[in-house]
Specification:
This protein is α/β, with parallel strands linked by helices. Helices cover 35% and strands 27% of the residues. It has a domain at 6-134 and 159-190 and 235-243: Rossmann fold, CATH 3.40.50. Strand 1 (34-40), helix 3 and strand 2 form a beta-alpha-beta unit. Helix 1 packs parallel to helix 4 (65-74), helix 1 (6-15) runs antiparallel to helix 8 and helix 6 runs antiparallel to helix 9 (211-225). The protein is globular, with a radius of gyration of 18 Å.
């Protein structure tokens, strides 16, 4: 899956569901006063923005230049730079918190852990979390799931190299002395209408710039919402907290 285009960066900035903050609140509860947090693979800055209040300083690092350019407008007050998870452009021991929201699936995880160990403090925390595509209404009806299956058959995911991750796999693959100390699974409802879901789902299979995909989604999503103004869509995922 390619994230390099300006259209995808804009789509991520404007249309991704606002679940990151709610995930952090489920993991940490009350605001945790981290001194300096690093968001690895920060994308357009949504996951970095969620750290506001959890860290005195927030820094995001992102390998895709188009995403990195977008991030300062999405997360004002945070600092951003271009770089990879496998070669973090920072001095050692300067972060007491590292977050990675759906980004480690696209890196060499065996090279990432030594880099994370290098830049984090001895008592620092690494939080890895991710969520799957929202494809179910909270009401339990299958109509959205059925629509999504048709959508991905019409506009398949690009062939990619994403690594499957979950707390169990992270526990097995963690290196450089990291270990999973806590993990949670979540199902977060987000109120969406057919228009906001359309903009979101176009970022899922990298068809955001394809006019035929937008037209198809616009036409076929209307009956899925069946005249409702909005409905909660469920986003399921995991969060794993690792320490050394």
């Amino acid at each position: 899956m390619s994230f390099a285009g300006e259209g995808m960066a804009l789509g991520y900035a404007r249309a991704r569901p606002p679940v990151h903050r709610r995930i952090l609140e489920r993991v940490w509860g009350e605001r945790v006063p981290f001194r300096h947090a690093l968001d690895v693979g920060c994308g357009s800055g949504i996951s970095t923005r969620a750290l506001d209040g959890f860290a005195e300083r927030r820094t995001g690092v992102e390998p895709v230049v188009a995403m990195c350019r977008m991030a300062p407008s999405v997360a004002p007050g945070a600092h951003f730079c271009s770089g990879s998870a496998e070669d973090l452009p920072f001095s050692g021991g300067i972060f007491d918190c590292i977050t990675a929201a759906g980004s480690l699936n696209y890196c060499d995880i065996d090279r990432f852990f030594p880099e994370a160990a290098r830049v984090v403090t001895a008592d620092g925390v690494l939080l890895v979390y991710d969520f799957r595509t929202g494809r179910n209404f909270a009401s339990g009806t299958d109509v959205l799931a059925e629509w999504y299956e048709t959508f991905v058959s019409q506009f398949p995911y690009p062939v990619g190299h994403a690594l499957a991750l979950n707390p169990s796999i992270l526990g097995e693959r963690a290196g450089a002395g990291f270990r999973v100390v806590n993990s949670v699974e979540f199902a977060i409802p987000v109120e969406m209408n057919s228009a906001s879901y359309l903009e979101y789902v176009l970022t899922e299979t990298n068809v955001v710039g394809r006019g035929e995909a937008r037209a198809w989604c616009s036409e076929t999503l209307q009956p899925v919402w069946a005249g409702r103004e909005a409905a909660p869509v469920i986003f399921r995922g995991y969060a794993a907290c690792l320490c050394r």
